[in-house]
Amino acid sequence: MPHDFMPGLAGIPAAKSAVSDVDGERGVLEYRGIRVEELCQRSSYLETAYLLLFGHLPTQQALTAWEQDIVRHRRLKYSIIDLMKCLPEQGHPMDALQAAVAALGMFYPGRNVKDLENNYWSAVRLIAKLPTIVAAWARLRRGDEAIPPRDELGFSENFFYMLTETAPHPLWVDIFDDCLILHAEHTMNASTFTGLVTASTLADPYTVVASSLGALKGPLHGGANEEVVEMLRRIGTADRAAAYVEEQLRNKRKLMGFGHRVYRVKDPRATILQSLSERLFKTCGSSQLFDVALHVERKAAELLGEKKVYPNVDFYSGIIYDKMGIDVDLFTPIFAIARVAGWLAHWLEQLTENKLFRPDQIYAGEHNRPYVPIDQR
Ligand code: CMC
Fold first, then answer.
1. How far is the CA of 221 from the centre of ligand 1 (A)?
2. What is the residue with the minimal CA distance to atom 42 of ligand 1?
3. What confidence tens digit (pLDDT) does each residue in 332-368 have?
4. Residue 224 burial (C-beta neighbours within 10 Å; 0-12, 13-18, 19+)
5. Which residue's C-alpha comes closest to atom 47 of ligand 1?
6. CB–CB of 333/94 below 8 Å?
7. Residue in 312, 317, 335 to alter for ligand 1 test, most ligand atoms within 8 A of Cβ
8. Which of 350, 6, 51 is nearest to 202 (CA)?
9. How far is CA 247 from CA 242, 296, 300, in A?
């Protein structure tokens, strides 16, 4: 069968999925058929995670049971904390998260992915424990004790509490929860695909999520949110934004937080995140980074609009987290805290009709080369 090679598998479907859909021409993103704008207005992260995993919105009773299951599994075994204490404190939090998640699989054996009940509890553990791991690492690396979760706090509020030991402003909790909704799922992106390749071997879900975390870390994917804030800080003031953009593009460098394989218009998540930042700044005062970002976007629209390169999800998210006092290198782990729901939804979906990923290649090397003995080379 003849095949055309598509670098990056651009435009090649890798799965049939009902989890989410992107209309890149119109800038529409739906989870299980519901637009993200509506989910941000009316849902919570945990309800959205349920929707992604099980395909429908929960009844009140189901939602309460789901939330309780998550609360009961937020704690970490002390051995996992001990294990994290052995990691080098200057290590990137994504690496610490990946190591801890891989280790989780050793603490929770039961690798039969045909066992649906075990799959449910694995999903619960992963969604529940990722925020605890990220917050614990943020403290352990500074020599502080990890703070255990508090059962009466909601998902986002508890994350802030574990990070800072203080109760966050309720508006922050609201906005942060919306950020998690917006990062929870995005069709066949690199980290989801990576997880599905691992899952297709029938590996356990901790291994699947550890694989996805590795792919998410890179600067062309989730890692871009950290690079954006570093770029905005380098630019410094709004009046220097246009010259910076021009220079980057003149030197054929990418602008971080811009462009997308699927969107030909501004990423709808970037639009929502921009308005969330405006909401945050109304109460907490503006941010210089935001002013710089607006000017970068304006200049980029002028110079990149023709190529249909616009801000993506990573452009405004970091500005929000930065205003909330969160360290820049925790931005991608926060992306992961949310995206684990999408990874697991695709994992469960694929398991219903699994087939080992084993793509082909177009061989571009030689044949029939003689083996040259070492003394004759
Ligand atoms: N800045 C400047 N030019 C760009 C950018 C950008 N950020 N993105 C794409 N372009 C140009 C690119 O130079 C190319 O131009 P030409 O046709 O003249 O060579 C054209 O647009 C097509 O770009 P591409 O890199 O071939 O497109 P792709 O679909 O392979 O890349 C991308 C998608 C996300 C890797 C790319 O846009 C990029 O590197 N962006 C910066 C990193 C980033 O923000 N990543 C986050 C992605 S969205 C969220 C997530 O996945 O985590």
1. 10
2. 220
3. 999 999 999 999 999 999 999 999 999 999 999 999 9
4. buried
5. 221
6. yes
7. 312
8. 350
9. 9, 12, 11
Q: How many residues does the chain have?
A: 377
Residues 6+ apart with CB under 8 A from 319: 228, 229, 232, 277, 287, 289, 290, 293
> What HEC string does 217-266 produce?
HCCCCCCHHHHHHHHHHHHCCHHHHHHHHHHHHHCCCCCCCECCCCCCCC
pLDDT in tens, 229-256: 999 999 999 999 999 999 999 999 999 9
- pLDDT tens per residue, range 293-320: 999 999 999 999 999 999 999 999 999 9
C-alpha to C-alpha distance for 300 and 55, rounded to whole angstroms: 38
Pocket of ligand 1 (CB under 6 A): 8, 189, 220-222, 224, 254-261, 304, 307, 309, 312-314
Nearest-CA residue for ligand 1 atom 28 is 261
Q: How far apart are CA 239 and CA 233, in angstroms?
A: 13
pTM over 0.90, yes/no: yes
Q: Which one of 36, 229, 253, 260 would you pick to mutate in the ligand 1 pocket, going by the greatest count of ligand atoms within 8 A of its CB?
A: 260
For the record, the structure tokens of 170 come out as 């309720």
Burial of 9 (0-12, 13-18, 19+ CB in 10 A): middle
Question: Catalytic residue positions?
Answer: 260, 314
Q: Count the Cβ atoms, other than its own, within 10 Å of residue 134.
A: 23
Relative to the CA of 10, which ligand 1 atom is closest?
29
Beta-carbon contacts of 277 under 8 Å, excluding residues fewer than 6 positions away, are: 287, 290, 316, 319, 320, 323
Q: How far is the CA of 259 from the centre of ligand 1 (A)?
A: 4
- In 3D, which of 321, 339, 340, 337 has the Cα closest to residue 329? 321
Q: Which residues contact 288 (CB under 8 A, 6 or more apart)?
A: 237, 238
Give just the sign of the alpha carbon dihedral 227, 123, 79, 168.
Answer: positive
**Could you tell me the two tokens for 164?**
């800072």
Residue bearing the CA closest to ligand 1, atom 37: 259
Which of 354, 347, 318 is closest to 193 using CA atoms? 347
